[in-house]
Amino acid sequence: MSGMIEIAKFAVLEAWRTRFIAMLILAGVAALGLSLFSGQLAVTETAQTRAAITGAAVRLVWVVALAVFVIAGLVREQQDKGIEWYWAMPLSRRHYFLGKLLGFAAVAAIACAISFIALLWTVPISWLAQWSVALFLELLIVSGFGVLCALAFSQTPAAVVATLAFYGLGRVIDAVVLMVRAPLLPETQLSAWIQPLVDVIAAIMPDFSIFAHGGWLAYGPSGDALAMVAAHAALYLVLVGCAGLIDIHRKNL
Q1: Phi (first) and psi of residue 48, to 5 degrees
Q2: 125-145 tens-digit pLDDT
Q3: What is the pTM of this model?
Q4: Could you give the angle at the alpha carbon of 111 between the alpha carbons of 224 and 230, nearest 5°?
Q5: Helical pair 125-153 and 46-79, crossing angle rounded to 10 deg
Q6: Which of 3, 38, 88, 116 has the fewest beta carbons under 10 Å from its own?
Q7: Residue 123: Cβ within 10 Å count
Q8: Cα–Cα–Cα angle for 227, 144, 225, rounded to 5 degrees
Q9: How many domains are contained in the chain?
Q10: What whole-number distance in Å separates Cα of residue 109 and Cα of residue 104?
């Protein structure tokens, strides 16, 4: 357990030394400026428009930034043989993997705290707190999948593309299912194959459209929205964690 904590500390320390946290703070200041500017674009519902636009921008920046940070750090460890230093310690691969996830979770929590402070004056605190928790859970899934891709591909570009494609598909999969089930064009033999394929993909993919929705900041989340997000996140964190543990045990790192 102590080994996991030490690895998590190294991950947070890396975020500090590479100025990743400083970049997050600057992005938080930029988000504050965006909220001031976007409020001037709306004729009505100025506060709601400001909150929704700023929340959507922060969410996208946090996801992309954390994915790149996670993957670049892990790939660099593999290429520089820094990972062998961990294997020289009395530490199992399971502890290494879980320690990395714990460290990246701490970095995600810092990012969410920065966005919480930046948006605090524009959004009711109860709405913002629930949105921040949902964003944190979303970042956990993305960082976990990023760890899996970094270990699987060992190349930064491929792992980043795979992670962002996973996230992008998760954001639009609900809309894709609706389009397939209510097609605008006449049905063909090909469309008969596409619908079952899309249904299978939708069953596997996490539905990121329900996470940290901008409407939560504008009008507040529904009563069970956060509980649904938490259950969704728990399921996919377990799946990603199991896949990562299987992959790291079978690899010759």
Answers
A1: -65, -45
A2: 988 899 999 999 999 999 999
A3: 0.89
A4: 20
A5: 30
A6: 88
A7: 25
A8: 15
A9: 1
A10: 9
Tokens 């690899």 appear where?
251
Sign of CA dihedral 19, 23, 26, 32: negative
Q: What is the distance between the alpha carbons of residues 38 and 108, in angstroms, rounded to a whole number?
A: 25
**Does the structure show a pLDDT above 90 at 245?**
no
Domain that holds residue 149: 2-250
**Tokens 């948006």 — which residue?**
119
Q: Are 12 and 99 in contact (CB under 8 A)?
A: no
* Segment 156-198, tens digit of pLDDT: 899 999 999 999 998 888 888 877 776 665 666 666 677 778 7
Distance CA 138, CA 104 (A): 12
Kindly state the tokens that stand for 201: 């993909």
Q: How many residues does the chain have?
A: 253
Which two three-digit tokens encode residue 127? 């709405």
Residue 32: count other Cβ atoms within 10 Å of its Cβ: 17
Residues 10-19: contacts with CB under 8 Å, at least 24 apart: 10/103, 11/73, 11/99, 11/100, 11/102, 11/103, 11/104, 11/106, 11/107, 12/103, 12/106, 12/107, 12/110, 14/73, 15/69, 15/107, 15/110, 18/69, 18/73
Q: DSSP class of residue 232?
A: H
